[in-house]
């Protein structure tokens, strides 16, 4: 019996997609990669996922796990050979448990992130992972890429928010590690091995996640800054003044917000032009009055010390959302403007000003007139260092220089002690770059782990490892 027939017998014919029905699953979110597949399957339980894996293994068919298909590194797109089976987890969308005594929520991998946030909020709790794509990305994808987002400064990446996992292994077994324990010192941490592995070791089918108390009050402000050095100094002042209450610290260049206001004229910038802006958010567990007093006190210090030139403090939830909407619209605005060369990098926060100054200069020397759309999570050292074409160069000609730009930026990142991927993963996009910047020892260990857990090499081949 052929594989397609066996998959249809296992899942039902309606959950095995081929031809045009499969097409929406074969191109990544950015439209950069388009692959081919034998089929796209949509299992509805972990047992069905395990059955799919066992069938694929018996037939020697590659397996490409896919969540919301919102990744930015091509990690969930099959290659062009057409032999792979794409395993969509979107039907794994159930809330399995919510425990307010333990502050945990157990959800399946296909649950949309925003839905998980809503379930937590309805129970009087906060699930703090927050991304621009939270209305469509899924928990499984967030964990597979160890997603970051805007509140890493306070709550950590997806890895820090996951207490336990359920995983279908490359053998088609189910590992049930859904215990909501804060302490479990019983050998190798399998949970952390699967998180960030981009589906190359197994398929995450469910997770037990940390919840937190809902903050009593939040304060948000957009701050005008004269320089990136001032942004780093303001971050230090905010950390000292707010401690753990500082939940967000985003930095944005003037070019970043300028493209937003041009692309979306209904979005208004409440401050005048300045080289850099910072978006601060504080979450207080005591009272609104306490939050506002601390918030205004730190902002006043920043103004007095010359770190800040001006500040717009949100007076309502609507104003706070409008400020965050400016930040979250940068990527969409860049898409409106045209193709650009994106980088998701991290550098120690103290070295970010030097990195940006040096890399800007190198790019200007290589491609005069290039525009720098730089923004990101300064609190955890993660910058989206995006490069837009000069008006004098045609888009197609600019994209032909993409490899040159990548090399220049990534070499500078490496020289400043950083990483070429902060939160988007490696996928296909940076697979070739990994060999240049990872040590031979690290790559050898990674290959040995891959060989041990996926000896047939069927789990998401062509991703991460060069």
TrEMBL record:
Keywords assigned: FAD, Flavoprotein
Q: A single Gene Ontology molecular function, please?
A: catalytic activity
PROSITE patterns, per the entry: FAD_PCMH (PS51387)
FAD-binding PCMH-type domain mapped to chain residues: 33-214
Provide the GO biological process annotations.
respiratory electron transport chain
In terms of InterPro entries, this protein maps to: FAD-bd_oxidored_4_C, FAD-bd_PCMH, FAD-bd_PCMH-like_sf, FAD-bd_PCMH_sub1, FAD-bd_PCMH_sub2, FAD-linked_Oxase-like_C, FAD-oxidored/transferase_4, Oxid_FAD_bind_N
SUPFAM superfamilies, per the entry: FAD-binding/transporter-associated domain-like (SSF56176), FAD-linked oxidases, C-terminal domain (SSF55103)
* Co-factor requirement: FAD
Tell me if Flavoprotein is a UniProt keyword of this record: yes
UniProt record similarity statement: Belongs to the FAD-binding oxidoreductase/transferase type 4 family.
Name it: FAD/FMN-containing dehydrogenase
Organism, per UniProt?
Pigmentiphaga kullae
